């Protein structure tokens, strides 16, 4: 439907330009004779001795032209060669762009960069105003989205993968917007290509992509860990139903293996459920007071049978007084049991696992520092950063032989995160391993008769 809005004639800008230029030359014709007469008088009087008169006349003419541009000619310079609409810069655009947290680039429809913020400069260090975007960002999908948005009216979206300086995933959104108009500018119908800017915004998808990958890896690992004992159980059942049906000795041995595999599956499922429950409430800090010395004595007493079977001595060095932290007692018991049991399983060759607790002042105040050291074969340094990942094992065969699920240290990490604690692991091949837990202290008190009686019991 044709617009009823009155539009200016296409010849009007040309008329204004011609009028402005004519007015300027009129001013110049008036100024130059006066300037020449003034120079002649000055030379006759000896005031400008040694200065070429032509140079002085040229300077006066230049000043006249500059005056012409400031008064009448300036109006012509502010008019676009295309349609007579003024092209002005709005400082608000720069302020808004620089204040955004995501990388943002403002483009002309031609692809020239008009403005960008600091985050965009980090994404594409070669960005520069008045230069094509393709000089700094060579991703074909983004450049194609810019071309489509320049010709269309709807935003264009495209995903971009960046390999350096680090692997990151981005979603680029290219949206055409109305070019800012000066105050009092006439409104227009629609957004013509010459009247628009393109705003390119980059949203960081890296956390989402990594989370999706972790979920895929977790499902794959959990399925594999469950499939292994299930396959073993299925094989032994077939054997017992066939060749070993009448072999009492083989039947007894196979049933023992099946029981061990069923126990492994039960532990794995229990660890998965525990990890899920802890993750659901990881942001809820437990507040019940837990006396740490008594808790560690309970842990070491409960693991003495396993230590005896493996020929390992557990040595616990408690402090003189009581140390109280805020926490969930059952979760803390689970965390320290996992750490001590790791020392018994993988450090049995050293014949000794040592526990110690001390109180120190850290960045967040007073902390309880619990150390668990074994003297086993140790861990290679390349494995240390990943030991708390789900299903990660430094030695897969040894872990499975020891009945591990690959979730023990992941559970410890999540439990300590919920308690605002920290876990540090130090180890080297042949030097054993040291696990250090730090937990914020609520109170430190001398030992009471009640605590002495409880520890004696």
From TrEMBL:
Residues 221-443 form the Histidine kinase domain. It is found in: Cell membrane. GO terms for biological process: cellular response to phosphate starvation. Keywords: ATP-binding, Cell membrane, Kinase, Membrane, Nucleotide-binding, Phosphoprotein, Transferase, Two-component regulatory system. Gene3D superfamilies: 1.10.287.130, Histidine kinase-like ATPase, C-terminal domain. One of its GO terms (cellular component) is plasma membrane. Its EC number is 2.7.13.3. SMART domains: HATPase_c, HisKA. It comes from the Bacteria. InterPro entries: BphY/WalK/GraS-like, HATPase_C_sf, HATPase_dom, His_kinase_dom, HisK_dim/P_dom, HisK_dim/P_sf, Sig_transdc_His_kin-like_C. One of its GO terms (molecular function) is ATP binding. It catalyses: ATP + protein L-histidine = ADP + protein N-phospho-L-histidine. This is histidine kinase. It comes from Rhodoplanes serenus. The gene is phoR_2.
């Amino acid at each position: 439907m044709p617009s009823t809005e009155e539009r200016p004639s296409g010849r009007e800008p040309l008329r204004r330009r011609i009028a402005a230029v004519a007015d300027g030359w009129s001013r110049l014709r008036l100024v130059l004779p006066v300037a020449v007469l003034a120079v002649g008088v000055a030379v006759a009087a000896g005031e400008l001795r040694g200065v070429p008169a032509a140079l002085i006349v040229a300077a006066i003419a230049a000043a006249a032209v500059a005056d012409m541009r400031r008064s009448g000619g300036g109006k012509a310079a502010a008019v676009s060669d295309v349609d007579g609409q003024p092209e002005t810069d709005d400082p608000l655009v720069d302020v808004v762009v620089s204040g955004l947290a995501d990388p943002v680039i403002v483009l002309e429809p031609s692809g020239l960069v008009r403005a960008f913020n600091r985050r965009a400069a980090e994404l594409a260090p070669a960005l520069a105003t008045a230069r094509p975007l393709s000089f700094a960002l060579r991703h074909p999908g983004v450049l194609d989205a810019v071309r489509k948005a320049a010709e269309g009216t709807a935003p264009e979206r495209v995903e971009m993968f960046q390999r350096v300086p680090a692997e990151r995933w981005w979603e680029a959104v290219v949206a055409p917007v109305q070019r800012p108009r000066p105050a009092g500018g006439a409104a227009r119908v629609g957004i013509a290509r010459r009247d628009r800017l393109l705003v390119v915004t980059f949203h960081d998808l890296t956390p989402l992509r990594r989370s999706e990958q972790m979920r895929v890896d977790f499902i794959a690992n959990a399925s594999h860990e469950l499939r292994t004992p299930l396959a073993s159980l299925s094989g032994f059942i077939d054997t017992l139903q066939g060749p070993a049906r009448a072999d009492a000795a083989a039947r007894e041995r196979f049933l023992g293996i099946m029981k061990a595999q069923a126990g492994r599956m039960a532990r794995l499922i229990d660890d998965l459920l525990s990890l899920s429950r802890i993750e659901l409430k990881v942001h809820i800090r437990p507040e019940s007071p837990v006396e740490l010395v008594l808790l560690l004595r309970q842990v070491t007493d409960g693991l003495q049978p396993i230590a005896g079977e493996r020929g390992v001595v557990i040595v616990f060095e408690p402090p003189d007084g009581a140390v109280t932290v805020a926490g969930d007692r059952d979760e803390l018991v689970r965390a320290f049991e996992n750490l001590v049991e790791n020392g018994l399983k993988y450090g049995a060759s050293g014949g000794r696992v040592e526990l110690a607790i001390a109180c120190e002042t850290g960045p967040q105040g007073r902390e309880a520092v619990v150390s668990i050291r074994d003297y086993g074969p140790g861990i290679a340094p390349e494995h240390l950063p990943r030991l708390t990942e789900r299903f990660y094992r430094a030695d897969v065969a040894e872990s499975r032989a020891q009945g591990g699920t690959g979730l023990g240290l992941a559970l410890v990490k999540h439990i300590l995160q919920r308690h605002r604690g920290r876990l540090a692991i130090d180890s080297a091949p042949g030097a054993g391993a040291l696990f250090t837990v730090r937990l914020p202290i609520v109170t430190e008190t001398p030992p009471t008769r009640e605590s002495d009686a409880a520890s004696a019991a």
